[in-house]
Structure formats: C-alpha cells, structure tokens
Design goal:
two-stranded antiparallel ribbon, LysM domain-containing protein, LysM, Bact_Kbp, Histidine-containing Protein, Chain: A, Membrane-bound Lytic Murein Transglycosylase D, Chain A, 2 domains, 5 strands, BON_dom, about 25% helix
Length: about 160
Amino acid sequence: MGLFDFVSDIGNALFRTDDKAAETIKAHIEADNPGIEHLEVVYQKGFVTLRGTSRSWEAVEKAILMAGNVKGVGRVISEIQVEESADKAPKELNPSSAGAEVDYYVIQKGDTLSALAKRFYGNASLYPKIFEANREVIKHPDKIFVGQKIRIPRP
C-alpha cells in the first residue's frame, strides 16, 4: 500500500453523507494545516483530490495522510504544487528522486509508538520522533488506530 492508498472503512468518521465530505475534509486539514495554501478538496466516491500550493513535500505528505485517514476515503490524489526543488520530493511523488526520507506504515493491532520506535530505531524511547513527524495526523501518542497510515522518519 503506497502513500496514496488507504483503508476506506476505518479512520476518523468526519462525515455521514458524501455531499459534505469535501467541505469536512478541508476543514479537518485546515484545522492543523501542515503548510498548504489555497487548499481545495474534491471528494467523489471514496476518492479525494487535493489542490493548492505548499513550500514543502512534508506538508503535502501530511495533508495526504490527514485526508486518507478519514473513514470513507480509499485513495488520495495530490495535485498540490510544491515550490521547493523537485530533487527533495519523496520517491513515490517523484520517481526520479533519490528516495524519501520517510517510510509509510499502516498501524496494526497491538502497535504502539514505542513498539514502532523499537522496531524501526532499536530504541522504544525514540517514539517522540515518530509522534513529531505525524503531529497533524496523530493528536496524542496513545491515540493511534488500526489501519491508520503514518510517516516513519528514517534514522
């Protein structure tokens, strides 16, 4: 599962009907805006398209994760224009780049940020590194859910 694919039947239940989905997802992203300007959100049958501008690929990744971790969203398409140099783009967003500085991980049953820090960094006490990389996606280190997709910064 890449950055743009999500488990649509789990996540934050922000809307009940599709007619308010785009508006609700936009408000959700803007509440903790990771750095997207002129944000536009289009929702159609589980697909979300994000448009706007940003100064960093990190902000784009976070916006994608914020939209994708909403119940009812199965795929996010990013048309956000990034103003920084293309060689800093994550591999999945720009296949010609040298590679991303983060990996994407889908939370499994029994996962904690401490367990993930132990797994990825060899030290459970480094969980704040994961939390800080996902501050807009994870509101509290103890509040993650199965199926949620997060960023894992590489050591």
